[in-house]
Write a structure and sequence with these properties.
Blueprint: H1 3-16, H2 19-26, H3 30-44, E1 49-51, E2 56-58, H4 60-84, E3 92-98, H5 100-107, H6 111-117, E4 121-127, H7 134-137, E5 141-145, E6 153-161, E7 163-168, H8 169-175, H9 183-186, E8 193-195, E9 202-203, E10 205-209, E11 212-216, E12 223-224, H10 227-235, E13 241-244, H11 245-254, E14 257-260, E15 269-276, H12 283-299
Parallel strand pairs: 3-4, 3-5, 8-12
Antiparallel strand pairs: 1-2, 5-15, 6-15, 7-13, 7-14, 8-9, 10-11
Helix pairs in contact: 1-2, 1-3, 1-4, 2-3
Length: 300
Amino acid sequence: MDRFNAMRVFTRIVELQSFSKAAEDMQIPAATATYTIKQLEARLGVRLLQRTTRHVSPTLDGQAYYQRCVRILADVEETEAGFGNSGAAPRGKLRVDLQGTLAQHYVLPRLKEFFARYPDIELEIGVGDRYVDLVRDGVDCVLRAGELRDSSMVGRRVATLQQVTCATAVYLDRQGTPQTVEDLHTQQHRAVNFFSSSTGKFFPLEFTVNGEQRSITLPGSVSVSSAEAYAACCANDLGLVQLPRYHVEHLLRSGVFREVLSAYQPKPMAVSVVYPHQRQLSPRVRVFVDWLSDVMTAAS
């Protein structure tokens, strides 16, 4: 039995909680995955996986073995890249997930530069605002805006983006243009409200008043969980929003949107690349994270 291959099969089954999904992900027959685990359990003399009709989960022994497998496989990949294939460029498939507007504005237009530098890497890119479980979904890294919350991941900040408070000219002509934060209430302003699709948490508007952060929640007719929908609802005269300037720069220049309360700007938005601890040594991940950092640093 190929021990390293067995470890790879086992780790993918644990991460995807499914023999069939792991087999599909690794492009092997499902029967091969099942046979590999049976051989592995027989050789180790322990049961590694609990199987139910709904999903597969590791036993206590299986969880301990999984953690060791992850470290061993990362070390093997790093060693092969550094010694066994010395001087060769990183190669293989890299699964990444990019926040939608960041992808459209910054990353996708410059992808050919990445492939010119690393022609042997194949990128599988998911684009959107959905929550991604990097381990379970088999994703190597994600590019996300906002503060990091998952301490089990490695996060590398690659940019900070200026944010603006704005609304359409039509909305402001109707409702009035606020000159102070207090005007938001006295003029009875409304907002397009934003919430997290993963936690359901709503995010208030943020302003810097006398050097301190102040949160204000305004009523609104609509709440959304994606950046594109957020800007689209604002464009339909539904209220105030706060977005990174790059997202609405063209609308501000054209006069469709107007910036308000520029003296009370929200704090800049952090942008980070996030990846699991066990993949921090992967040459493919390393070069892609370095390239993303260069792209975002140049843009911010």
